[in-house]
Amino acid sequence: MLQLYIGNKNYSSWSMRAWVLLRQAGIPFEEKLIRFDGFDSQSEFKRTMTAISPTGTVPLLRDGDISVWDSLAIAEYAAEQFPDKQLWPQDKAARASARSICAEMHGGFTALRSACPMNIEADLAEVGRIVWRDNAAVRKNVERLCSMWSHLLAQHGGPMLFDQFSIADAYYAPVCSRLKTYQLPVPGEIAAYIERVHQLPGVKAWIDAALAEQDFVAVDEPYRAER
Predict the structure, then answer these.
(1) Which residues does the UniProt record annotate as the domain GST N-terminal (predicted)?
(2) 27: which of 19, 22, 70, 116 fits an S-S bond (Cβ 3.0–4.6 Å)?
(3) What is the per-residue pLDDT for 106?
(4) Continuous segment of H or E residues that includes residue 70
(5) What's the whole-number mean pLDDT along residues 162-184?
(6) What is the pLDDT at residue 134?
(7) How confident is the model over 190-214, as a mean pLDDT?
(8) Burial 90-100 (b: 16+ CB within 10 A, else e)
(9) Which strands sit side by side in the sheet containing 2-6, from one edge to the other?
């Protein structure tokens, strides 16, 4: 069986992408959660992951002797190993678009990711109001997200970005969580898409587990001193 190494569900957006993709697609895997206790070389997390991954980070997918240590590479590997799951859109043009927006997420939206780190169980609406007021780069990131999602939902008819659930929706699920945690303003159609993503069984299972963790990791908490 596949093994997927992840970090805390409350905080680890990159882990969420791979986990949600496999869970929502019905691909069996064994979860290996390595708690975040710090990211320096002496932390238990870093010692554990460095022993099994060349990057020392999560997520990491292991399939027998094969290791895949990047979330986008994991998505591609899953699509290749399980073609019947149709993880990418079947239409060539749509598939190219889906790959492009996943790559854009992978290397972009740095302002939003930096100012609004994922924290599923927190209510950071007040922080979100300040970030929205003071950070033009975050506003620009959200504007791009809304434009992208609106175009794809109109083009493919919803309910997901490319009609059916795909890698693209798994890839943007943590962004949906951020927008909700920080209550950043988005148009109604985008808010509706965010709610549909949150109601996907795979996403809901991740969120429920994140809420059940009851684990406060100070290194991942720039805005709170306690739960």
Answers:
(1) 2-86
(2) 22
(3) 93
(4) none
(5) 98
(6) 98
(7) 98
(8) eeeebbebbbe
(9) 29-33, 2-6, 60-63, 66-68
